[in-house]
């Protein structure tokens, strides 16, 4: 840095210096270049932030800072460098400005929970949900480390944004760099984002229903019975309601905690694998964070959170899966027939709160107009309406209306949970913090550590509604949800005794305390693959918990059965892998990416034997389908969805037709579910059932009607749906019993391929060396950056496609020896 540069930098409020760009010509150059001497030039000016940001291969950031403010600063800078446009669009969303800049009729979706609506409805929803009043507790009750890192993140993001606006980083972020909606972040945006993520599995499922809920314009005193609604839903062919009601969740995960008795090495192992969208801000971002001499953690977080949500260090490793517990309850309100905005509570009519919300919209002619709605809230939460298959299940009439109380909208401990975990000094402290903070919003946790047991807990924020309260406070609609969403209460909102209970060991009113939530510690193994806590380990079922948390003694999904079966087969040696029994990192990695299918193992031979000799089957429409060529392909199929496998797509389309059949249906399995054998039952597909026969014919016909050949290999038809060059992706769907997930949503074969946009996302396998340091390998399957001009846009996806496991550099030696190391030194100074 020459004196002229130093003088120029002294006149601006921040300095970014960079050095050490090694060997990788595609790496982003450090900006501006320097020699590391900036500390001699700052004089008496206050240093706001000082951090070192190093990137190893695949763009993995390693951040070292003296304090959490500087950590957040470097983290915000790195995420902006990788994902500026995606984060900028999310800022539009959480501020309720999509209609102003993208038009009111444009589409808005939340892939992770299935919500889909217009920009206008999204704006009304987020304006009424992410109010200053709503986010205030998230800020005021957060630990100092949260506040500091959040402020630093804003300034680091804005630092990178200022460089883009100044014309730096040419060629990068072309999708947004010249857009008028490329806004600087504000601190309030961070807390809006935190609350948005908190309600991902609750309020934001009902974007449309909350954004459009209005009192009736005319008097309507008719109330449908539960029988009427169930009959109407059945007539519409609705097998399930949207998340979190559906059997196959829009988001999911697999995870194992393997302790000494399940380990070939005698050392514990942790496997974590969220199944999240490959698009939008529910992507996961890998980083290695170090603050001072005491806090060090590596792992992944959802975009915009300056912490590690799934990760590891020398003391412990953990992962999460989406829990079956409900985070909200509906309340049925009895209305004043003369005023549908008043409801009965303890014998008196109470006014709903109303808010007039005005949204600016970009009109078709380019002018800016306005739309105004009045939205309502009860004492419990927002008013809403809800339809399933066109049937108004929750309707606002003159007599009844429905409102929602969301426990995670009140969960101001969420950020404290993860920041305290990131600073924990031991496995035992990690487990203790799980219960004492009780801020995990909607995910199960599995953890272990060097020489430690395997731990599982669904210690999450759950409305305190014991089964007896759900029964005593049931409403006329309760039988509908008993069928459509077992365990989800619809409570009588007119009675104080129907409000949520409180436990003495809970950190907040209205939620279950740790004593009433399921946990398990084992010397061998625990798992979760998105079914309930019940058979976390089939040798020690967990029972006796409230139905709102999860079901017990019910059939597990094929994916969960596959999860358990894989461990059992490895421990008894029946999986065919070489060497001694138990897991090590290498054979675990082989198992979790093997792309085999439980449905194929259970039923392929029976299907071939029953259907193929005839050569023809009738479809569900009664038309004959020639299945002979499909049968020949399926006979030769290796039973997996690996890249060179041929024929598995025929099986997938067949099983797609079977999946909606209830597991208890005699048309599906001849051997029924046995709660004493949840891994192996139900079994024996009922190939004699006309429904199963028609499903096979329909699946074959679906392929025949598409551009996909019956004998196509996976590598030719299953490709990343988010990259600009073809990258083949192995794996299958959860509904067909695949553990290795690659999914196309929505499923459309008209382009001759499965475009993968969901599934395996962040993957970590972690164990510990003899010296106590973690050994971790894995992937960010869609890569670190969403910018096509970034060198980190598809590099990790290409490695994943080839199953080339990536070492996560944790030690200083591993970082320094990386051949593609790039280093930035970031300093920001206060103005004079």
From TrEMBL:
Q: Which domain of life is it from?
A: Bacteria
> Which InterPro entries has this protein been placed in?
Ntn_hydrolases_N (IPR029055), Penicillin_amidase_A-knob (IPR043147), Penicillin_amidase_dom1 (IPR023343), Penicillin_amidase_N_B-knob (IPR043146), S45 (IPR002692)
Q: What is its main location?
A: periplasm
Family designation = Belongs to the peptidase S45 family.
Q: Where in the cell is it found?
A: Periplasm
- Alphabetically, which GO biological process terms does the record hold? antibiotic biosynthetic process
Q: Name one GO molecular function term.
A: hydrolase activity, acting on carbon-nitrogen (but not peptide) bonds, in linear amides
Provide the coiled-coil residue spans.
none
An example GO CC term for this entry is: periplasmic space
Alphabetical list of PROSITE patterns matching this protein: PROKAR_LIPOPROTEIN
Reply yes or no: does the keyword Hydrolase apply.
Answer: yes
Source species: Marinobacter pelagius
- Name of the protein this chain belongs to: Acyl-homoserine-lactone acylase
What's one Pfam family here? Penicil_amidase
User: Keywords assigned by UniProt?
Assistant: Hydrolase, Signal, Zymogen
* Annotated transmembrane regions: none
Q: Where is the signal peptide?
A: none
